[in-house]
Amino acid sequence: MEDPFATHKSHNAPGQVIIIIGAIFIPLNIIVVALRLWARRIKKTSLRWTDYLIVIALCLNIVIYGIGVDFVVNGAVGLPIYQATADEIVTALKVGSGFPLT
User: Fold this and answer.
1) Which of 26, 42, 57, 96 is the most exposed place for a label (fewest CB within 10 A)?
2) First-residue to last-residue Cα distance in the chain
3) Is the residue at 25 inside a domain?
4) How many structural domains are present in the chain?
5) Range of the domain at 79
């Protein structure tokens, strides 16, 4: 059976906003962290525990952004619920909860 909302993903403006904001701020975050680490190197000071935590936080931020993109692309996040298919809802719940749903 053909999906009557097959083109709905191309009109997912709220979902596109999620992706665009992340696409802008993830590189900005990477640049800021890189500048911080470069400044430490120029000053010839050793990295402190806060620097390591910032790098860990940056990595987690990138992972969370990737999950958000997956929500938008495969889970129909940003769409009204009546436009989401059952498979998309299940995918969003699987990714969001972290538990295998059958």
Assistant:
1) 42
2) 22
3) yes
4) 1
5) 14-96
For residue 62, tell me if it sits in a domain: yes
Residue 75 corresponds to which tokens in the numbers above? 């889970």
pTM for the complete prediction? 0.70
d(CA 91, CA 86): 9
pLDDT digits (tens, 9 = 90+) for 65-100: 888 887 777 767 777 777 777 887 777 777 666 655
Backbone angles phi and psi of 100, in degrees to 5: -70, 120
The conformational region for residue 98 under phi > 0 = left, psi -120 to 50 = alpha, else beta, is left
- Which tokens sit at 21? 């904001």
> Using one digit for the tens of pLDDT, what is the confidence trace for 22-32?
899 999 999 99
Closest among 68, 79, 71 to 5, alpha carbons compared: 79
State the burial class of residue 83 (Cβ atoms within 10 Å of its Cβ: 0-12, 13-18, 19+).
middle
Block residue for tokens 């940003």: 78
